[in-house]
Write a structure and sequence with these properties.
- This protein is α/β, with parallel strands linked by helices and 446 residues long.
- The chain has 2 domains: 59-254, P-loop containing nucleotide triphosphate hydrolases (Rossmann fold); 259-417, abc- transporter (atp binding component) like domain (Coagulation Factor XIII, Chain A, domain 1, Distorted Sandwich), CATH 2.70.50.
- The protein has helices at residues 23-38, 76-84, 116-126, 131-145, 160-173, 190-205, 217-223, 241-256, 440-443; strands at residues 8-19, 48-60, 65-69, 91-96, 100-103, 178-182, 209-213, 226-231, 234-239, 261-262, 282-283, 300-308, 317-319, 323-332, 339-347, 352-357, 371-380, 386-398, 401-408, 413-417.
- Helix 3 (116-126) runs parallel beside helix 5 (160-173) and helix 4 (131-145) packs across helix 5.
- The longest helix is centred in the first third of the chain and has 16 residues, at 23-38.
- The protein is globular.
- Bound molecules: adenosine-5'-triphosphate (ATP).
- Adenosine-5'-triphosphate binds at residues 17, 19, 50, 52, 70, 72-78.
- Keywords: ATP-binding, Nucleotide-binding, Transport.
- One of its GO terms (molecular function) is ATP binding.
- Belongs to the ABC transporter superfamily.
Length: 446
């Protein structure tokens, strides 16, 4: 690690949780060691250590914004909590300079019995502001949170969005040196998220150091100076955002499996089924999931996807311009009068490159009866050398509009091999560069 000073310095940080196999083991751990000691026997443990974080070192400099990315359970929240001091490390050290404002677990800093107003004063005081300082900022805090009359109601009556609005507003108005945000923004509505991100930009300009956990690779690339990638409690990469996003995307795709793997997805609600049940994740070549329970039926469900190359065989790599077929097997639970299918192609960092529905493409499809059916999207891979991620949807036209009943956010991916003497990126506009000749007028000086 470099010897540069940091506003946040983390060195050799580890956190182990004690995990009990059963509630009984927890009770045994409470009682038995004392008993064994009384009996003169050597104590033994009834738990095992689970390492949520292992040997993490990183620095965040003044005015720097660092984004932390990783799959669920990779240790992101644990890292943030250790940095904020709400958890104690099992090994290593954390040093943070200045006032730290944190948005950790939703509303974790609020007392639910107190009103919003009382919580503002309580929170800001805990962050070191005097009563006079809080009074001077109070109106601005309330204006930014924009939760109306709720400010005088107990926080336990707030929606999760309101809690985030107030918590974020307090955090940004206490004049922090360090802002730590754990995915909290994803709870707010889009307009509020934008307002927060604009404020984050302003804080960056003011030299606040920011540590941000995000699942959005776009937010990482757009707002962070550096990315930190955690995988199963270990820091596997600390570097430029695009490289971190690429490594994360590669791992994600590798772990989800090769072509034809279906990830779990929620069928979307639709009449006549009252409440849909989640589908089961199944690799393409294993048995399909059992149909949803009778009382919680979905209209239809995509159960298998395969990506086929120009020869009709499963393919993971294509040449630019090849024809690609995306085969999907559908389980239809209820008759569908006007079926409709959607397809979306994205980059590995989640940017939608193209999407379409059969309705947009004016493909009139016959009604579907209950049972299994197989369909194919035929597409041309008119793309540059890169990796592409597919999402699929299926549903029906109701009142002239596409109502999606099931979506697979990840329905597979494919690589288009880079061609010699071509550009890079996503599009393949088949460029040529021509010398079109000098204009006669210019040549004669007008
Ligand atoms: N109190 C606890 N006792 C035991 N294990 C825990 C405890 N808190 C967290 N863990 C485990 O530690 C690991 C890391 O959890 P953490 O919440 O830090 O991950 P994360 O990357 O923030 O996940 P997510 O993206 O889902 O929020 C997980 O496997 C989690 O189950």
């Amino acid at each position: 690690m470099s010897s540069e000073p940091g506003v946040i310095v983390v060195e050799g940080l580890s956190k182990a949780y004690q995990v009990y196999a059963t509630p009984r083991a927890r009770l045994q751990q409470f009682v038995m060691p004392r008993l064994r000691r009384l009996l003169g026997l050597a104590p033994r443990d009834y738990f095992r250590d689970f390492h949520a974080l292992r040997d993490i070192s990183l620095r965040v400099g003044r005015g720097e914004t660092v984004g932390v990315i990783g799959r669920n359970g990779s240790g992101k929240s644990t890292l943030l909590q250790l940095i904020c001091g709400t958890l104690t490390p099992s090994a290593g050290r954390v040093a943070v300079q200045g006032r730290v404002a944190a948005l950790l677990e939703l509303g974790s800093g609020f007392n639910p019995e107190f009103s919003g107003r009382e919580n503002v004063f309580l929170n800001a005081a805990l962050l070191g502001l005097s009563r006079r300082e809080i009074e001077a900022r109070y109106d601005e805090i309330v204006r930014f949170a924009d939760i109306g009359e709720f400010i005088d109601q107990p926080v336990k009556t707030y929606s999760s969005g309101m809690v985030v609005r107030l918590a974020f507003s307090v955090a940004i108005h206490v004049g922090p040196d360090v802002l730590v945000v754990d995915e909290a923004l994803s709870v707010g509505d889009t307009a509020f998220q934008q307002k927060c991100l604009q404020r984050i930009r302003r804080m960056q300009d003011e030299g606040v150091s920011i540590l941000l956990v995000t699942h959005s690779t776009n937010t990482l690339i757009e707002y962070c100076d550096r990315g930190v990638y955690l995988r199963r409690g270990r820091l596997v990469m600390d570097g430029p955002c695009r490289e971190v996003v690429k490594a994360y995307g590669d791992d994600l795709l590798a772990e989800e499996g090769a072509i034809g793997v279906i990830v779990a997805a929620e069928p979307e609600p639709g009449p006549p089924s009252p409440s849909p049940s989640p589908s089961v994740a199944t690799p393409a070549d294993t048995a399909p999931p059992a149909p949803p329970a009778q009382e919680a039926r979905a209209v239809l469900q995509i159960e298998r996807v395969a990506l086929l190359g120009p020869d009709g065989r499963p393919a993971a790599a294509l040449r630019s311009g090849d024809v690609l077929e995306v085969e999907l097997e559908l389980q239809v639970f209820e008759p569908v009068a006007e079926p409709c299918f959607g397809v979306q192609i994205s980059s590995t960092d989640g940017i939608v490159l193209w999407s379409a529905t059969t309705q947009q493409l004016a493909c009139a499809l016959p009604p579907l009866g209950p049972g299994r059916q197989v369909f194919r999207w035929r597409l041309q891979a008119a793309f540059s050398g890169n990796r592409y991620v597919l999402a699929l949807g299926a549903g029906e036209i109701v009142g002239g509009e596409y109502k999606r009943r099931h979506r697979l956010d990840y329905a597979g991916h494919f690589d288009v091999m880079p061609e010699p003497r071509s550009g890079s990126g996503w599009l393949a506009p088949r460029p040529e560069f021509l010398a079109a000749g000098a204009s006669a007028e210019a040549g004669h000086g007008g």
